[in-house]
Amino acid sequence: MARLRGLLLCTALLGFVCLGAPGLAVEVKVPVEPLSTPAGKSAELTCSYSTSVGDNFALEWSFVQPGKPISAAHPILYFTNGHLYPTGSKAKRASLLQNPPTRGVATLKLTDVQPSDTGTYLCQVNNPPDFYTNGLGLINLTVLVPPSSPSCSASGQTSVGGSAALKCSSSQGAPRPVYNWVRLGSSPAPSPGSMMQDEVSGQLILTNLSLTYSGTYRCVATNQMGSASCELTLSVTDPSKGRVAGALIGVLLVVLFLSVAAFCLLRFQKERRKRPKETYGGSDIREDALAPGISGQTSMRADSSKGFLERPPSASSATTTKSKLPMLV
């Protein structure tokens, strides 16, 4: 029993000596709450440590984009062997609040922060031999950005009885903006039963549309940095009115066609009545012309019986005609 007590006492004393020995433990402290800074301003990422700084002391700040593991961290700056080495895309905007950081303060100052600076920052202190802690602190930074001007769009069947979806979205905004749709003008708003709005996605769904739903709708995107809006005009159509209008237009076209046809027919008949009677020239062949060898007197008697008086052919023409006939015996 005495041996067991002595063994436990030696173990406790050895642990106390090891923990109290300089250079064997590093304790890093960072804020627990996330940090937020407006875009364009400066951010101070507080980091402190407790250890006895030796010749092997080293400090490293690194950055991890949102949603990625710590192993994907990109270095921002190093301090080792008494020198500071900024590196990476943030090198020109990153510095230490105290340089050299050998008095327990390793705070990082980042100027002109941008939306791409949002993520997790790692403050890591190494002071070999360090066997008891990892000397690592994590700080979450959010760069605050007001919502950009959102874009509004509509989809669906925008006719009476149909459904339509109004969408609104901002490409920028941190924290993520919320969206609210309102109807402009004095017309009554759609009934709650036919309207469903999602403030996160920015979508407004309208069901069982009627002509009273036509009008201008405004979407407002808001976060703690400000707000922005866009507008959209919704036009609800009535298909039945379109069919009636189409039938009316068809009837009018038919009536117009018939009117033009009747006008053309009447004009044609009128022109036909005005056309002069056909006259025959001397060289024309007529059905009532005298056959060769028939005397003019016979023709005159025949014509006299009909009430007409025609001039007998001249002697020269008769002689010419008779001369061409064969002599009959």
UniProtKB/TrEMBL annotation:
Renumbered residue ranges of the record's region Disordered: 276-329
Signal peptide as annotated in the record: 1-25
Species: Nyctereutes procyonoides
Swiss-Prot/TrEMBL keywords: Disulfide bond, Glycoprotein, Immunoglobulin domain, Membrane, Repeat, Signal, Transmembrane, Transmembrane helix
Record-given protein name: V-set and immunoglobulin domain-containing protein 2
Main subcellular localisation: membrane
Composition bias, Low complexity: 314-329
Pfam families listed in its UniProt record: Ig_3 (PF13927), V-set (PF07686)
Transmembrane segments: 244-266
Superkingdom of origin organism: Eukaryota
Keyword tRNA processing in annotation: no
PANTHER family reported in the protein's UniProt record: V-SET AND IMMUNOGLOBULIN DOMAIN-CONTAINING PROTEIN 2
Location(s) in or outside the cell: Membrane
Ig-like domain mapped to chain residues: 22-127, 146-235
Record membrane topology: Single-pass type I membrane protein
Gene Ontology CC: membrane
